[in-house]
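pls read this stuff:
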Amino acid sequence: MATFIPDTSPMPPELETPSPALLNPADAESLVRDASHWIAPLRAEIGRYLIGQSELVDRLLIALMVKGHLLLEGVPGLAKTLALKTLASLVDAKFNRIQFTPDMLPADIVGTEIYDPREGRFRVKHGPVFANFILADEINRAPAKVQSALLEAMQEKQVTIGEESFALPSPFFVLATQNPLEQEGTYPLPEAQLDRFMMKVIMDYPTEDEELRILDLAGTTEDLPAPAPMVSLGALQQARTVVNRLYLDEKVKRYIVRLVHATRRPDAFGIHIAPLIRVGASPRATINLALASRANAFLNGRAYVTPHDVKTVAMDVLRHRVTITYEAEAEGLNSEQIITRLLDELPVP
């Protein structure tokens, strides 16, 4: 029988830094209720345009509230564009879609300098990245230098054109999509760039009942009415402030750290799958697990984080950060099965 060995390693420095003052327990419930009053109406309104995909909607909201970015993988025609465009319309934010192609240049995303002959000088023309919501459609179709231009904007929240740097709008949220079926003419994102996405969400086909509803909703040539804004950027900022102050117990913090460390040295936790894991999750996964868990608690109207919140978001935070070995591939395993085993066998506080 496997013996569990407690993890006595120090807490990563990212989690030791001072955090915002936690909510007063006496006021926490009412503050969360007031700050999240728009969540249920927003979900309902999105449901008028996007049938099913409730998990995707929640992941979009989680990333939006903690300033993260999403990588969405799914076959064409699953309403990936519709999901983000609808959310952007309801939040009253500027939305731009960038269709990635092999012949793109970085200037096609961030912008460039254009010579004005009347004034005799160069002026800056901003690219489509200057928006609140960016849909980077089929990001793996563009070459590495174009992918890097977008990923730099995601990380730094600014771009450099010529000798000037320009801050991007706030909020700034990127949903990048990639088609898992086609490999020809694509440039897969390397692991170091994948790590910059807070979550990777796999979008699946709708159920039969959901597809019947889709047919009833969109099975005509008439256009659906455009969604009207119902959430202000001020309300979103208030929600972000409250999410950052939700209570995260020391035991839950330790569980997050152990879960990430189990992807690097599973044998130390009595989970004997080390030969199946080539690279474990980075400290960025630890930070993102804590942030996403807080946001998930907020979506559910709670002022405190539970281990269930961690387990709810763990797959999306970790699936693109855990790289399996050739041995695991030979056994027909993938990173999701490895993470599922870690979640099942790692003791929960």
